[in-house]
Amino acid sequence: MADIQEAFLHGQLLERREKLEAALTTSEQNASLRQLLNEVDSALERLEAGTFGVCETCHDTIEKDRLMADPLVRYCLDHLTASQRRALEQDLELASQLQRGLLPRQNLTFAGWEVCYHYQPLGLVSGDYCDVVTHQNGSEDVYFALGDVSGKGVAASMLMSQLHAIFRTLVTSGLSLQLLVERASRVFCQSTISSLFATLVLVRAGQSGEIELCNAGHCPALVHQGGRALELGATGVPLGLFCEGVYPTHKTKMSCGDTLLLYTDGVSEARSANEEEYGVERLKELAASCPGLSAQALVAACIDDLKAFRAEAPLLDDLTIMAVRRVA
Ligand SMILES: [Zn+2]
Predict the structure, then answer these.
(1) What is the pTM of this model?
(2) Could you give the CA distance from residue 263 to residue 261 in angstroms, rounded to a whole number?
(3) What is the DSSP letter of 60?
């Protein structure tokens, strides 16, 4: 495991140790606290000995995202006891419910805009971020966000909820889109370890059809405007990569029937049974071939096409698509 992650986990363990010792001096002898303290000490010893992150049954590497979420784990997923497995499944189910609770309502319509999305985690939880926020600071603007946290599973889903909280807090501040993303990147950078980052497309849509879009290292956003297809590519690096990123924006105006399609690489990098990649071009052509569809029908058409393309091939990543359509 990378040194930086070990250093992070070492710090985490020392912090827990200090808290446990403080709790032990204030409460009467508590057996479960003492047990936890022993487990923390044992993890610190494993770090010292260089055996940290190695399964005690098979001596294979323990899944990195599980260690990041809980540095005390000692067994890989294949070697949990039945009760550990049950507890893990219950935790994941709860995390999944919490994450579903963070999603925006489905098929929203606002003055002049309709939006629909499809959110499909690979496992129980997803590292994709999907959000819609309206009416901040007394304006009629609508914000659409779609992002992808590096990695998969539990650690990615925890960062996804952090991104959700950062964005929801900043969007009330009245900052310009560019400053909002710059601030979000700084906060995200300061609050995560340096090997983790998130790509994000953030869109502010105004009442009279104007949109401003910032793309932080994410797949190109696809705009279909009066029969033309445009790709709005990255204007900056992923969030959290550098604390001082600069994020210029794209601006355009949408007319009735124009659509904006956002998606994660779980869509564009999906594979067919013969290892062919789905690709951005295919998505672009599909959206161009059905200009009259509602946001909901466009999302459904994309999902159907992707399913047909994959046939029996398994999904490899979390998958999210969002369609925004300008309506009368
Ligand atoms: Zn094992």
Answers:
(1) 0.81
(2) 7
(3) P
